[in-house]
Amino acid sequence: MKALLTTLTFALLLAPVAGAAQGQRVGAQNTPKRLRATGTIVSATATSLVISSANAKETTYVLNSDTKIGPRLVNKMNPGTKVTVSYHMLNGTRVAFAVIKAPVKKSNPQLNPQPLPPRKIPTTQ
Fold first, then answer.
1. 27 with 53: CB under 8 angstroms?
2. What pTM, to 2 d.p., does this model score?
3. pLDDT for res 75
């Protein structure tokens, strides 16, 4: 009986190591991969969000009670608003777990220089 108990204990201790040796991450078997997309809101309801990406492709995301909506978007998810959606795939469906307003890129005047005004050349008489 003692030998059986020792064998079972040893087997239980090695099970996570064996899984890791086969290329599995220990403790992460059911963790979905987190993905992110940025685009402009086309439409939004209580249960779905459709955004258009830079290449004009429309993508639908499922919203549920676990979806976190950023404070700058609460009651303001209007068409035309640029957002970033953090989501994971669940049975082929994109399920959003966070939606935030996308940061606005400010132009750098050093990267986009404005043309200089024409110089006035003094004339001599």
1. no
2. 0.60
3. 84
Distant-in-sequence, close-in-space partners of 99: CB < 8 Å, separation ≥ 6: 49, 61, 63, 67, 68, 69, 70, 73, 77, 83, 84, 85, 86
Q: What span, in angstroms and rounded, lies between the C-alpha atoms of 42 and 58?
A: 8
**Lowest-confidence segment of 9-18, 43-52, 79-88, 101-110 by average pLDDT:** 9-18
Question: pLDDT per residue over 16-31, tens digit each?
Answer: 444 444 444 455 556 7
CATH ID of 35-101, from 2.40.50.320, 3.40.1700.10, 1.25.40.420, 1.10.357.20:
2.40.50.320
Give domain limits for the chain.
35-101
